[in-house]
Amino acid sequence: MMSVLVIGKDSQLAQCIMDCEKNFPEIDFSYKDSKELDITDEKSVKKIFEDYTFNYCINCAAYTNVDKAETEPLRAKTVNTIGAQNIARACKVNGSILIHISTDFVFDGEKKTPYIEEDYTNPINVYGKTKRDGELEIEKTLEKYFIIRTSWLYSQKGSNFLKTILRIAKERKEISVVNDQFGSPTYALDLAHLTLKIISSKSNNYGTYHYSNLGKISWYDFALEISKTWKLDLKINPIKAKDYITHAVRPSYSVLDSSKAQKSFNIKAIKWNESLQKCFLNYN
Ligand SMILES: NC(=O)c1ccc[n+]([C@@H]2O[C@H](COP(=O)([O-])OP(=O)(O)OC[C@H]3O[C@@H](n4cnc5c(N)ncnc54)[C@H](OP(=O)(O)O)[C@@H]3O)[C@@H](O)[C@H]2O)c1
User: Fold this and answer.
1) 5-60 tens-digit pLDDT
2) Residue-averaged pLDDT of the chain
3) Kind of pairing, strands 217-218 and 182-183?
4) Looking at the domain assignment, is residue 155 inside a domain?
5) Atom number in ligand 1 closest to CA 131
6) Residue 90 counted as domain residue
7) In this structure, are residues 117 and 260 in contact, taking their beta carbons and an 8 Å threshold?
8) Is Cell membrane one of the keywords (predicted)?
9) Domain range spanning residue 109?
10) Is the CB of 153 under 6 A from ligand 1?
């Protein structure tokens, strides 16, 4: 039996890991929410690892509000950078393997072909910078880690673009969505499955990986497909990012190349619209 600590129990990703549990009977899961374990508190993080032995730790906890991070940079850094450092140090002392989730927002979006793991990082907002610095802390501290960069995460759980569109469709008849920022949506259940596949395969291909669903689309394309799939009565208008004012700037292109993860962990990445369909069928 392998013991796995999942930090950030209420995150959409951890909730999806729970949904995958039954497929991995060889794993014994422990979950901690932010009240049980605040990752910014070094002593509490140390204590959790002293009290129990974990073969793996999956860190789903993060400061994920991209716009709010611009006005709360210290808080974002404390969670995304110092929090990651606290977890990496505790994993080091206790010999636990860390699976940490990072983001496409470590890139500036200037590239025109899918980003590979070795591409130069150059975050253009506070969230991306604090996440990139969290990656650096892990790389400095640990040898046995997997950093998985993902993008545009959605599911039935938590807050995400899909749920925002479904909510807005109940309140309004019309919406404008940005059509000149491109990326790949990722169904959190697919990412959850990948993290558990890494553990069950006992892979020692440590390092940084990209993982998203396949395809390049804009937020506008994503909204249209959501509307079509859920049969929403919602008129969706395309809008340029420059005309849609947000606190944080976002990369105009952040498609991730998932080939390294597919090869290393023997998984097949799924097309974004097929995964959206799967999410629809699972949605209740
Ligand atoms: N969402 C996306 O589109 C996206 C895209 C790329 C990468 N990612 C990354 O994927 C991972 C999972 O994202 P997600 O969307 O599943 O996250 P999420 O649903 O936004 O949840 C984040 C979780 O982190 C917890 N948390 C915040 N501060 C904490 C602290 N100090 N100590 C312990 N827990 C704390 C929150 O707990 P409370 O709710 O109790 O505060 C919340 O449960 C994150 O690393 C994120 O950066 C997300």
Assistant:
1) 999 999 999 999 999 999 999 999 999 999 999 999 999 999 999 999 999 999 99
2) 97
3) antiparallel
4) yes
5) 47
6) yes
7) yes
8) no
9) 2-159+185-214+255-270
10) yes
Q: Which CATH number is 30's domain given?
A: 3.40.50.720
β-bridge partners, 177: 238
Residue 214, helix vs strand vs coil: strand
Number of domains in the chain: 1
Instruction: Name the residue at shortest CA distance from atom 19 of ligand 1.
Output: 11
pLDDT in tens, 190-229: 999 999 999 999 999 999 999 999 999 999 999 999 999 9
Nearest residue to 164 via CA among 185, 191, 195? 185
Average pLDDT on 167-183 reads 97
- What pLDDT is attached to residue 284? 84
Q: What is the pLDDT of residue 130?
A: 98
Distance 160 CA to ligand 1 centre (A): 11
Task: Give the residue numbers marked as catalytic.
Answer: 127
Catalogue the E-assigned strands of 22-155: 27-32, 56-59, 97-103, 145-150, 153-154
